[in-house]
Amino acid sequence: MKASMDNLRVAYIVSMKSGLPAWNFREIDILSRNGVDIWLYPTKLSSGTTMPKPEWQVRRPNVLRTILLQPKAFIANPAKYLKLLLLAIKMRTVVEFLLAEDYAQDMKANSIEHIHCHFGDRKLFTGYFCHRILNLPLSVTVHAYEITMNPNPEMFKLAAAACKTIVVQSEFNKKEIVKRFGVDEAKIRVIRAHGDVCDERLRRSVKLLIAAGFTEKKGHDILFKAVKKLARDDIIVWVAGDGKLDVPKMAKEIGVDDQVRFLGSLGGHLMQIVYESCDIFVHPSRTTASGDREGIPAAIMEAMAHRKPVVSTRHAGIPELLPEILVEENDVDGLAKAIAFLADNPEVRKEMGERNYQIIKRDFSDAAVLELKSIFASADRFEATATSAVQS
């Protein structure tokens, strides 16, 4: 994205350890639509339910790159580098200093004009060193734990003193910062966190779910291509799972990353909530070139048990379980048509989900599981009979 030179350029230092927190997303989205160009500098980065928009710039943390950039930073200004490094050692913030040297070089290249940090912990400490390196104005949004349970209160006091503005959500927290850290009250602003007003797009959207390991046979790319072909803004894809295959990169390359939400590897109650919340379960299994294939995916059974309509493929044992809706393996057009049909017919989804539930109730009941008991018992009797025969 080429930013407008008329817009204020702001570096946002945040944590994205499970995606971008929803309140950060809303905040950045509002600012972006109102003349602020945002560059994201995450201290941690992995996929989550909310991710940055494709047009937002993100400097991905990279340990090797950060290390290799240190000689360049030292050569540029040896005295300042050593002074800040000694301070970082004293304050137990060497990692934040090294990351700041990396990020500061990128901020300078992008003509950043202001640094804002969300949370007064590692994010602020990294921002503080960026501020010292670049001499840019610094601000921070502070919540509660940084005031009462800060992991490094000495560093927080130093960084807070360097901030041009400190944002808090309450008058109470404002008074606490002044009392505990001696911060100048005049630089503290009370700005309420932006509430989670109902996302109209999410409310009216059709939520597709694929819950599968990130492997070729699961067919994530076929689902993404089908969604791309539909070109509908009322469809969102939830992806649960993880693995070696770079599925987020796949979504980006196909051009649907703005419609895909990566939930990570879920289990237990969280996964049950996701099953309950989706509208259509999609599992486009296929046989790979190496011959890898499914049996009957347990995730399909789980979706059926939650009364969800399922779209899958005529693959391996899946047709034995699922009578509808099945398309051929790797059939992007067929998958797109099936998804569109169910997306446009909520009553059909409900009826199909109920039929799927009845299949699971009939064929995958406790009684079916207890058939194993008869197998175990039969095997024991056979072994006992065989042993007796040998002994006699």
Commentary on this structure:
The chain has 392 residues and is an alpha/beta fold. It has two domains: 8-190, Glycogen Phosphorylase B (Rossmann fold, 3-Layer(aba) Sandwich); 200-366, Glycogen Phosphorylase B (Rossmann fold, 3-Layer(aba) Sandwich). 50% of the residues lie in helices and 16% in strands. The strands form two sheets. It has a seven-stranded parallel sheet with strand order 3-2-1-4-5-6-7, with helices on both faces. Helix 2 (63-76) crosses helix 4, helix 5 (122-134) packs across helix 7 and helix 10 (220-230) packs across helix 15 (332-344). The chain starts with 7 loop residues before the first strand and ends with a helix.
Which descriptors would you attach to this protein?
seven-stranded parallel β-sheet, alpha/beta, Rossmann fold, 392 residues, 50% helix, disordered N terminus, 2 domains, 16% strand, six-stranded parallel β-sheet, 18 helices
What's a quick, concise take on this entry?
This protein is α/β, with parallel strands linked by helices and 392 residues long. The chain has helices at 22-32, 63-76, 78-91, 94-109, 122-134, 145-148, 153-162, 171-181, 200-204, 220-230, 247-254, 268-277, 298-305, 318-321, 332-344, 346-363, 366-369, 371-391, and strands at residues 8-16, 36-45, 57-58, 114-118, 138-141, 165-168, 188-190, 206-211, 235-240, 260-264, 280-283, 310-313, 326-327.
